[in-house]
Design brief:
Elements: H1 14-32, H2 50-66, H3 76-85, H4 91-111, H5 117-134, H6 145-158, E1 164-168, E2 175-177, E3 187-191, H7 193-200, E4 212-214
Parallel strand pairs: 1-3
Antiparallel strand pairs: 1-2, 3-4
């Protein structure tokens, strides 16, 4: 259960917990896949293969671990450079770096005071992108989902995103996402948590569980757009 006021008090350890929880699920999956699987396209980031997406994830986390935040960091151009730098690495080396980043980034994110919390959320979403590319069930679910939902609420509040009242099939209590309602009443979502994650991260919802969205367009919910 996610408390309705989860956005009000930041838990500095939560991003690291989310990363380590996802690490324990994702890394064994990656090490068990054949090399050809890493050339598959990803629906969440259609310009990147699975391998390129993993290279982006590992590079971003190592920047956090090593406090390397030069101008333009995390821009599309910087992301492309990070991927290119890892272009001739064996896939196993990319996975090793990703595992290290998911293990060590938590304390650095905690010390940052909240400005890097969305990095952990984005990494978790990208892990879902990889699972979906592999055809794994429950791509945006798993043990990390409750932690991810708590971060999703907080990040949406801090970004003053479109107000949204979400009644989730998977939770007893509703989630209140986005900024404080003004002239516009909160939008209303009814459906599964994983589908809400897809909507809030701009991922395809074709084939996802049915849902109802009133008072907002799908694209308005995308936090990363």
């Amino acid at each position: 259960m996610i408390p309705g006021d989860a956005h009000d008090v930041r838990d500095p350890e939560l991003p690291g917990l989310l990363l380590r929880t996802e690490r324990d699920a994702l890394i064994p999956l990656l090490r068990a896949r054949p090399e050809d699987d890493f050339a598959r396209p990803t629906a969440g980031c259609p310009a990147w293969t699975v391998r390129e997406l993993l290279a982006h994830c590992s590079a971003a986390l190592m920047r956090v671990v090593e406090s390397r935040f030069e101008p333009g960091v995390f821009s599309p151009e910087a992301n492309d450079r990070d991927i290119a730098e890892r272009g001739d690495w064996p896939t196993a080396r990319v996975i090793d770096e990703l595992e290290r980043g998911m293990t060590e980034a938590g304390p650095a994110i905690a010390r940052a005071g909240g400005v890097l919390d969305a990095v952990a959320l984005g990494e978790w979403v990208h892990a879902g992108d990889v699972r979906e590319a592999f055809g794994e069930a429950g791509a945006y679910e798993g043990a990390g989902l409750p932690h991810a939902l708590t971060l999703l609420v907080r990040v949406s509040r801090e970004r003053d995103h479109v107000p949204l009242h979400a009644d989730l099939d998977d939770l007893d209590d509703p989630l209140r996402l986005g900024g404080v309602p003004g002239d516009r009443p909160p939008a209303r979502y009814i459906g599964g948590a994983a589908t809400l994650v897809r909507l809030c991260s701009g991922r395809p919802v074709a084939g996802a569980t049915k849902y109802e969205l009133v008072g907002a367009e799908e694209e308005e919910l995308n936090l990363f757009g």
